[in-house]
Amino acid sequence: MVRYGGIVNIITLIVFFFYLILALALTVRQGLGHSFAWLCIVVLALCRLAQVSLDLAATELFPPDTAANTSLESGVAILTEIGLTPLFMATASLLNMTSRPKGRRMQWILMLLHVPLVVSLILIVAGGIDPESRDGPNFAATEVTKAGMALYCACFVILVWATIVISSRLYLASSKEAKILTTIVLSLPFFVVDIVYMMCFAFESLWGSQRFNVISGWVTLQLCMQVIMEYIIVGLYLALGLELPTKAMRLAERVENEDLDRLAGTFLWKIYERVSALVAVTVLPTLRFAHWFLGRITK
């Protein structure tokens, strides 16, 4: 019989498979130049699908209270933590879509935010699970993993600050940019809960409790503080993507906003070039022949 944790994993498999299909559709719909946020969600969905598959296998193969620190459990812990990286990148990419209230300086800050995110991902993958916990179901994070999670926390503070600064210039935003900012502001409380859960797991040795452990902790606690939070955040982002203009709509809007005089001038200049070429090819040889023929007659 499938355990409680296994049921949660099966539901997560279904939800994130649906999210994966929807994110791929948005990637095609928005065009490659405007789809980095949806590509990040694709990576997140793949990460979560791999994580819950490993967790389901570990849950069914080993009793939760006696499981040894095998590669399955280590993989579950690593994938659970690094899933924050594409979530952060998707949020920063959505903020970068707000061109008018954002400004040039904030654009560079949001782009450079990807550097510590990649560094934290590398630290978490390299750190993994403390090998000293191999003899029992402790699954403690290493010091390197803790450093990676601390970087995540710092990146989240920068992300909240950037959201506040950009939202304070909401009067400059278009209707599309206002929708983006509203969605990100709505997602931040759920993001906070997710970050708090991950930090509690990484630094659980400070209070010696296993409740927040992603492998041997309380399933209900992880469900309420991490799993459902990511359901909501990704769902909000994908719902936003369905409301954003498609590639064809952006192209039509760009054509409508072009300077009509400049377009007319360009069109007339092309006509002038075509007529000049036609004259050079047909009229000039005819005039030369007429001049030669009249010269022969008058002689």
From TrEMBL:
Transmembrane parts of this sequence: 6-28, 35-54, 74-96, 108-129, 149-172, 184-207, 219-240
Pfam families found in the cross-reference section: DUF7702 (PF24800)
Key words, A-Z: Membrane, Transmembrane, Transmembrane helix
Highest rank taxon of the organism: Eukaryota
Keyword hit for Membrane: yes
**Domain DUF7702 residue range list:** 4-244
Xref: InterPro entries: DUF7702
PANTHER family found in the cross-reference section: INTEGRAL MEMBRANE PROTEIN, UNPLACED GENOMIC SCAFFOLD UM_SCAF_CONTIG_1.265, WHOLE GENOME SHOTGUN SEQUENCE
What is this protein's record name? DUF7702 domain-containing protein
Tell me which species this is from. Answer: Lophiotrema nucula
